[in-house]
Amino acid sequence: MQSIPKGVYSHMALRKRWLILSFSLSILGFGIGYLVFKQVLIGFIGSLVGQFLAIVDYIDRRSTANKWIEEMLSELHIDIDDFEGALTLERVLEQVNMQTIEVEKNPVRTRGKDVRGFTGGVLESDLDEQQAIRPVSKHDVYADLEQDLTIAEQVKAEADKRYAEHAQQRWEEAERNDPDLIEAGVTRLGDLVTTDYFEKNQDSKAISKLTSDQSSSDEK
């Protein structure tokens, strides 16, 4: 859970701090100026200096608070419209914590991008061929990580299995009814390579026909 860092105040707290600090420094500046120089004018000047210091403190802390708000908004891509015009530290913190909890519940799962496998270290270059491959299967630290499928995963696995069986049946049926396979006297599409089917049915304009059909379909 995020929390407002030390030294960052809400705008309301900053206003209260500015009023108290301005009043205190004004009295302190007036007292020092009057007691040291025995002149009321110098006391008023000291009071103005105290108010100036209070304003500088307010501006600095307000800038720090606004910077923290901007960092939080950009870090989690929070939409300003979610605050309905009340962009305060407390509301920002509430939105940040809500999104943090959501992110923790739904982590982004990604696959490794190194085609050579897990290395466990930092490569000097993405094309470093000297880096040894460390297959995951040879590390005990990755043992016993597999668990039973959840109900949703079981349903998906069963659906994938049935779809694969259905696709295989449709493929075999298409091969049985293919006139070219029947004419060549073979039962599988791959067996056509062993016959003279392609020599007998070759077409020197096949590529041009294919490209023209492709162009006409793109124009539509």
Keywords:
single chain, 220 residues, mainly alpha
Description:
With 220 residues, the chain is an all-alpha fold. The protein folds into two domains: 11-105, no CATH class; 149-208, no CATH class. It has helices at 11-37, 40-75, 89-105, 151-176, 179-184, 197-200, 206-219. It is elongated, with a radius of gyration of 37 Å. It starts with 10 loop residues before the first helix and ends with a helix. Mean pLDDT is 73; it is low at 101-106.
Q: Let me know the number of strands.
A: 0
Helical residues, percent: 55-70%
- Mean pLDDT over the full residue set: 73
Structural class, judged by helices and strands? mainly alpha
Radius of gyration: 37 Å
Main sheet makeup: none
Number of helical regions = 7
- How much β-strand is present in the residues? under 5%
Quick summary:
By secondary structure, the protein is an all-alpha fold. The chain has helices at 11-37, 40-75, 89-105, 151-176, 179-184, 197-200, 206-219.
